[in-house]
Every structure is written in structure tokens, then in C-alpha cells.
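Morning run. Coffee first, then this:
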Amino acid sequence: MFFSLSFDFFDHRLVLTTDDGSAAIALGKSVAEFHDSLFTMLREHGIEAAIVGRPYGVPIATPFAQDTEHRSYDASAVGRWWEIVRWTSDVFEEFSAEFLGKQSVPQLFWHGFDLAMGRYNGRPADGPPKADAVQAEAYSHEVIAFGFWPGDATTSAPTFYTYTAPEPATLPTQPLAAGGAWYPSGAGHIGGLPYDRVRESADPRATLLAFLRSGYAAGVRSANWDDRAFVHRTRG
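And here it is:
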């Protein structure tokens, strides 16, 4: 059976579509209630699915099926976040079209809820082994990454970001466009540009593209990438 699951942030539902029709469950439940409703809906349509069932990369250890504490859902805030992510994804797609090497599509990472993409040069990454299988796969090769971070306890405002991994020693000395700046993080330095600076600029699209291009240029210079191999076409 073919099926898909998609979030509807207009009516705030999770929608299941199968060969035989569709069904949906409302958002706004506790994590445990959502987990139970989801798997009940799947089983009712003959779908047996298995997941790890516990958080990854966030400081919450409670398995999903047992988490009755976390149940807040602000539909208005979710709607605004969705509009930002949709617009950002469109700009990221335009940025992607300028690069002919291997790169990931803009995608939402489930643990940090950041919209992110990466460009790769094909060289295996040197350095100490990563702490887990997910990071080992994600950083197996040199990457210049870009994304949109909605904010958390340590980053109080939504921010666009870029970083290079493994981090070259000179990366924090490289200039960033549009008022971006380098900030220390647990794993090195991240170049940040506040979302509000983009939103309030005369041309938000051009402002974000300038920041992304400068982040890529910073990684190329400091990590000695052979940019000619990718036929990078910088637009005006």
C-alpha cells in the first residue's frame, strides 16, 4: 500500500492519504495522545509502522507514548512559522540553483525543527569520530551548511545561519554580508543573521541571498575548496 502523511497548517491537522482514501487527526494534543492517535489511524488503514519512539537531540528523555506533559499548541504562531518556512524554502531553492555540486534539498530537521541544507565537496571529513550514528553520517564529508532556526532557550529570536564542518581555523575571520556575524557555539562558530533584519530590509530576498552566498564564500576560502569544480554561478 502506498500512503503519505502531511501536516495541514491551515486546518491544523495531520492528514493520512492512502490508495483507499484519507483520514486526519487534529493537532493540539499531548505528545502521548498524538502518538496514540497517529498509530491508531495507521492501524485502522492496515498500516503497521515502527519508529524509535523517543526524542533525539533535545533535552527531553520521556518516550513519546508516555509524554503527557507537553501539550501546548499555538495555532497562530504555528501558522506564522509555516509562512516563514515556506518563504525561506523558496529562497533556499533559488540559492541551490547556483551550485552544480552535490547538495541536500532544503529540509526540515525533526530534532531542532530547523530548515536546513548543505553543500558538499566530496572530501571525507577528518577529525574525531562523532557521538552517534546520525552525526557520523551527517558529517562524514566536508560540508558548508545553511538554515533557518526558529529559536530556543539559548537563541531567543529566529535566525538564519551558516557554518562549515569541519570548521577551518580562519572561518570566524571571514566577512558575512547583510550584517551577519559569527557566534561561538558548542561545536565551533555559526554565522547568524536575525530573521527580523531580513524581514525589515528593503529587499528581504536579496538580503537573505547575500548572506547565504557570503557564508558559502567564507567556507570556500577558509576550507580551501576548489570552487571551480562546481561551476558556482554567483548572481547579482
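The beta strands are 3-8, 13-18, 21-26, 107-108, 115-124, 141-149, 159-165, 181-185, 188-194. Good start to the day.
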